Amino acid sequence: MAKERRRAVLELLQRPGNERCADCGAPDPDWASYTLGVFICLSCSGIHRNIPQVSKVKSIRLDAWDEAQVESSMCAGSEATSAQWLSLSSPGRLLREQWIRAKYERQEFIYPEKQEPYSAGYREGFLWKRGRDNGQFLSRKFVLTEREGALKYFNRNDAKEPKAVMKIEHLNATFQPAKIGHPHGLQVTYLKDNSTRNIFIYHEDGKEIVDWFNALRAARFHYLQVAFPGASDADLVPKLSRNYLKEGYMEKTGPKQTEGFRKRWFTMDDRRLMYFKDPLDAFARGEVFIGSKESGYTVLRGLPPSTQGHHWPHGITIVTPDRKFLFACETESDQREWVAAFQKAVDRPMLPQEYAVEAHFKHKP
């Protein structure tokens, strides 16, 4: 009997639509929610265990299945169940967890009236924000207004003027739980006087911070639709938010290359290479623009033979039309990853608007 039940589950797995995880699309799922009748990957199964009132999971090959569990799976079935949901793959564990909860627990995609109105054009609420100077997280009022194209925050509840106004045009949001030290940590980056600024925020409720993230993306989408009226949705979606190409520590020296190398935290954001004294600094100590090879930019492994003052052995030289930038990595794998990130930028032709950014960098005081 046990073999027959196992065979029945494996036959279900062969049905069209079941060859991929019902939640994230990963191939060859080896877990199943027998209460929902969906097949899922190991990663998503861990999230399903957090909603046992909705979903109960078993390993397809390692766990014993009873007849009722097989029957339950057969009645629902991934293909039938998936047809009820909107298809979406969400990067990051927090986003994926809230996606799964919205899908199965809150049933937002079956009942549209339950969905969060991300595109309502306005959102306000309180988030914990890290202080720029003291590093303490304090509750601050945030207001997102699509009409003004801005995200604002206020230092006091009754404050008439915001402490900062972040234009949606230049805003990016990315989840940074490890860096911020909170599972719901979000880093928001924006431009002020054409220099990068960071704020670090979180909310104790995972759904709340994901709702803020989605509201920011919806506001960005509205802005991009106006800014690029001829672009398709498929063209605009990748521009809503972006993850950094690479982050980590390197050593750097100054423009004269005579002073010693100093350890700094580096963030590669598109073509901007920024360096910070601390990963949670509000603003960068400096930025380097990395253009394309057609414009005279080159990435080289190693340092010029006469270079002194670096402690880490694995050097990188970035050649720009104006000067050379020298960096040193602690390990060969770090060097390899940084070179790959830089090379990706150098190999990509520059967009028209990127020439304006490059010109600003060249004329910085």
Automatic annotation (TrEMBL):
Domain of life: Eukaryota
Record has Cytoplasm as a keyword: yes
Keywords linked to the UniProt accession: Cytoplasm, GTPase activation, Metal-binding, Repeat, Zinc, Zinc-finger
Stored CDD domains: PH1_ADAP (cd13252), PH2_ADAP (cd01251)
Residues covered by the PH domain: 120-221, 243-347
UniProt keyword Zinc-finger, yes or no: yes
Chief subcellular location: cytoplasm
A Gene Ontology term for the protein's cellular component: plasma membrane
Span of domain Arf-GAP: 7-117
PANTHER family in the record: ARF-GAP WITH DUAL PH DOMAIN-CONTAINING PROTEIN 1, ARF-GAP WITH DUAL PH DOMAIN-CONTAINING PROTEIN 1-LIKE PROTEIN
Designated name of the protein: ArfGAP with dual PH domains 1
Species name: Cebus imitator (Panamanian white-faced capuchin)
Lineage, broadest ranks: Eukaryota, Metazoa, Chordata, Craniata, Vertebrata
